[in-house]
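User: For a reading group we're discussing how well predicted structures match intuition. Take Polyphosphate kinase 2 family protein. Before you show the prediction, I'll give you the sequence so everyone sees exactly what went in.
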Amino acid sequence: MANQPDPSAFKYPRKTAFKLGKAPTSIDKLYKNKLDYKEKLNVMREEIHLLQEKLYAENRHAVLVIFQATDTAGKDGTIDHVFNGIDPHGLEVHAFKRPTSTELDQDFLWRTTVALPSRGKIAVHNRSHYEEVLACRVHPDIITDIQRLPLALTKNMDKLYQGRFESIRDQEKHLVRNGTRVIKFFLHLSKEEQRNRLLARIDDPEKHWKYEPGDLKERGYWDKYQKAYEEAIQETATEAAPWYVIPADDKRNMRLLVAAVLCEELRALNPDWPKVNVVQLEALAEGKKMLLAED
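Assistant: Thanks. Here is the predicted 3D structure of Polyphosphate kinase 2 family protein, as structure tokens, for the group to look at:
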């Protein structure tokens, strides 16, 4: 029988230091076959849908879901499959690409801050402010040549990044203190599986549109990215805003685990339908009376 998803096994921080190389990219299948996978995912999607409806109606909490991953790990597909069917009134998805000139004129948290969820809503960030300690770490010219920071700040890059980690931790703690649940996913893909997926994009005409020559260039920085991800997770995995490092070599496993985490995190908020007071009950009774009188 297929295993049941256990979100806690992939949750950080832990008592021991986080090492990305020791985190699995593949685990035993959580499903028996394709039909079993779909049934398991549908059950969890229905629960997410119900919890999101209660969250929206209650209007007390917000939820921020962050996805980070290397190229081809499957962020888009995971978001599509897991959140499919969620009421669009309570869900916002933001994909953060190359910053605009307006965004570059602001501090590094600005463009994701303006996309934070309001109470009652779930906001999904496909990539996020973490790019500022990931892509920028691998390509320091983004800091020195594009972001146009004061020269005094860029003289000591290690100090600059430690300051960014501190700012991220502070903001996430602030969000949690004010009723926003912060759920962070790193979809952990192996280098060999990324190779296979890039080859599939090249070999399959229906996937040609997904392929960009820049993907191979970025693959050349694999080790630097792995180091940057490891440090980012080490520095920002807190009790208030933990990271979930999800094995991503099997897309179905990955989606089941992400859905299981979301169910667990939303349950912890314990959203409920708003209580109706006496005045509202009287209004409901009067409304029913008027509608029935139309007969």
